[in-house]
Write a structure and sequence with these properties.
CATH topology: Neuraminidase
CATH class: Mainly Beta
CATH architecture: 6 Propeller
Shape: globular
Helix content: under 10%
Largest sheet: 6 strands, antiparallel
Mean pLDDT: 98
Low-confidence stretches: none
Number of strands: 32
Strand content: over 45%
Structural class: mainly beta
Length: 430
């Protein structure tokens, strides 16, 4: 596949419930990628747990890695969310994986320059969350409100929010999006996509797919209200809300859906992007499952995962098979896959990581990256290999937003045995 492939960080990985993990800064033609270093990677224990931002000069191919927090915790869930403020300075927010009660942030000292950061600040969730921890950061600014939202997994492990009226300099508690009686580990894995002006779309699950046969729901935030896909207000005011049941939103994927004779269950949110009135999402699920809820180390009897492509045309969602995703990536995380990403500037283009070649249906020795394109709204895809014959796994691709004239895809490659133990480097194709 044409393009320049560059390793920009020799020790880094990310989870997929923080955003933006990567973005393009059009002011200086650079790509910023946030990640977490592991003790088993380059630099060893002295680097493990670093919260890092790699910066790639897209014109020259030169890159540098900047440390935002030294040795916070070696866990891919702690990857920073990044935002370019109106004054050009960068905002980075990050949290541990439920092992303390802080949402942390730093702001770069100079505009369009990640080499130096101001002092770290934090929001303490201890009293609000009963000391049970906070995880994830998702930053979205709405210019019409002059407000930045940070979506965090916190109180009751519900999707909760912080709001800032000064572009991330200070934060206050903003309530919860969703709540319900807790089942298992988490209430609602949520992916967000903002238009930067007046709207933030989201898709969310019921719980963790190991614990519950998830459906997936869509809604959006606008004018201090949460709406379903039809525009019906389901929660207002949003800021300060105690949270609603996410099943009130519009169903994108119903657990038990039959596609081409395969019964699809235990959905999980992977990616969501918007162009105009259209939305595109990638969802993972189990096919023909016979187990249902699982214990943490219990293997699946039918270990067959699928990726689905969902497309919203402004009126309704249409769901299509995308690709076979293979068996579980990790034995103790039975619903993990290699994941995928929608191109934020072209909803007809996706990138996926899978151990099954979508062109042939044949298993490969490692997870490879493929680019897919559709010309019929997702009903069919044509595929091209981005990586082939790899000696290691290629996982969790991202297509960074920020500049419609700049296209890049990034992923990490190497070995991963858990969210805390990996030896992977970060690669960009541009």
């Amino acid at each position: 596949m044409p393009g320049m492939q560059t390793t920009i960080n020799d020790n880094g990985a990310w989870c997929w419930f923080q955003d933006e993990r990567a973005l393009v800064d059009p002011a200086n033609n650079t790509l910023l990628v946030g990640s977490v270093a592991a003790s088993g990677g380059a630099g060893g224990d002295s680097r493990g747990g670093n919260i890092e931002v790699a910066v790639l000069d897209l014109a020259t191919g030169d890159s540098q890695v900047h440390v935002v927090h030294t040795r916070l915790e070696p866990d891919d869930h702690n990857a920073p969310a990044l935002l370019i403020r109106p004054d050009g300075r960068y905002l980075a927010m990050y949290a541990k994986h439920k092992t303390d009660n802080y949402s942390r942030w730093r702001i770069s000292t100079r505009p369009h320059d990640a080499s130096e950061w101001g002092p770290e600040e934090h929001f303490d969730w201890t009293e609000l969350a009963g000391g049970r921890g906070a995880t994830y950061s998702n930053l979205h600014r709405l210019a019409a409100e002059s407000r930045v939202y940070n979506f965090v997994r916190a109180i009751n492990d519900d999707p909760s929010l912080l709001v800032s009226e000064d572009d991330g300099t200070t934060w206050r508690f903003g309530g919860k999006l969703f709540t319900r009686p807790k089942i298992g580990y988490v209430n609602g894995y949520t992916r967000y996509c903002g238009n930067g002006t007046d709207r933030i779309d989201l898709i969310t699950t019921d719980h963790h797919p190991r614990d519950f046969n998830n459906s997936i729901y869509h809604g959006y935030i606008r004018d201090d209200a949460l709406h379903d896909a039809r525009g019906q207000v389901v929660s207002k005011p949003l800021i300060g809300s105690p949270g609603i049941n996410q099943a009130t939103l519009t169903t994108v994927f119903a657990a038990g859906t039959d596609i081409d004779g395969d019964i699809l269950t235990h959905g999980w949110t992977v990616d969501l992007r918007r162009q105009g009135q259209d939305l595109a999402a990638i969802i993972s699920c189990r096919a023909n499952d016979v187990n249902g809820p699982l214990r943490r180390e219990q293997p699946l009897d039918v270990d067959d995962h699928r990726l689905l492509y969902a497309r919203f045309d402004g009126r309704q969602w249409n769901l299509h098979p995308l690709a076979a995703a293979g068996p579980a990536l990790l034995p103790h995380e039975q619903d993990y896959t290699g994941l995928g990403a929608v191109d934020p500037h072209d909803l007809n283009q996706v990138y996926i990581s899978t151990p099954i070649d979508p062109r042939t249906g044949q298993a490969t020795g490692h997870y490879e990256i493929y680019r897919g394109r559709t010309r019929d709204g997702g009903a069919t895809f044509g595929w091209e290999a981005v990586t082939e014959g790899s000696a290691v796994d290629n996982l969790r691709p991202m297509v960074p937003p920020g500049d419609p004239s700049t296209h890049a895809v990034c992923w990490f490659r190497g070995s991963m045995t858990s969210s805390q133990v990996y030896a992977t480097d970060v690669v960009v194709l541009h």
